[in-house]
Structures are given as structure tokens and as C-alpha cells.
Amino acid sequence: MADLSQLLQQTMRRRHLTAQALAEHTGIRTPRIRVLAQDGAHGPVHPTEAELAELALALALPLPDVLDAAGTPAGAPS
Question: What is the mean pLDDT of residues 47-63?
Fold first, then answer.
């Protein structure tokens, strides 16, 4: 299981996306994306399930993989 920070960093690098570009595409603030990419879901900023869904869509990743990386099982109450 990949950590959310690893998953975001690898995918953003592979797709040549900056945090700012991803923020513009998703509507999630740039500093928030930077913190998630640096610290993952267990840092000071905890992503919402809606944010995880937006990130999965924007990065063309399967939502269950993103939820798993964030430590949120698919279908779990948020």
C-alpha cells in the first residue's frame, strides 16, 4: 500500500503537474495540496473524502487506490 504522499508525488511527477496546476484543476487550495503531497493523510492536514475523490479524478487514479493510500476504506463513513 502506497502512502498518500507517495502516490500524489509520483503521479504529479509522472503527469508533469505542479501543486498549483492541480489546485487550479480541482479547486483545492495550493497550500493544502502541497501539505498532502508532503505529509500525506496523517500530517497536520486531513483530506476529506470529497477532496480525495477530486484528486483521484484529476490524476486519473482509481478512487479505491487513493482512499486506501489515505487510510480511508472505500465506503467508510467520513
Answer: 96
